[in-house]
Specification:
Layout: E1 9-13, E2 19-23, H1 24-33, E3 37-42, E4 49-53, H2 55-72, E5 78-83, H3 89-104, E6 108-114, H4 123-136, E7 141-143, E8 148-150, E9 153-160
Parallel strand pairs: 1-4, 5-6
Antiparallel strand pairs: 1-2, 3-4, 6-9, 7-9, 8-9
Length: about 180
Amino acid sequence: MNEAIRAPQVRAVFPDGSVEVMPTQAAVRRAQEMGLDLIVIAPTADPPVAKAMDYGQWQYEKKKKDHEAKKKQHVILVKEIKFRPNTDDHDYDFKKKNAIRFLKEGNRVKAVVQFRGREIAHVDLGQKLLNRFSADLKEVGLAEANPKLEGRNAHVIISPLKKDAPAKPKDAPKPPPPAGQPA
């Protein structure tokens, strides 16, 4: 901006709408006479495009716009649910209910079966448990891949299904007309 611009001439855009190709020093002088700064907005153009504006105000508006954009974005988290190969049915149902809630919130679920000690000999039980889990959640989520065994853990990642717009009822009854008006 201003004196840091190295191009010999710029295409200067001023607040009154005028656009001129002029020497950089003359454009900086004219912007400063208006009480503004000359800021390069398109450095790769030939000649570079510079705009006369209040740099502090521009920074403030950019920061505010970035903050608004960040506020509207949704971060998808990966929630982890741990099982053992011989997890009881009640515990399984409780964890399945939590997984359904996580998927409905839009988060991904990573189901992990941990094998300890001699349990590693029964990898098939863990695979069956993860297959059952992904089958039970197919209403709200989709398994990204088949269960994988890594070291002493087997895991599967389940992503939420794409949300469709809620269907509007077609046969919704119309409210009766106010009293005194013909139907």
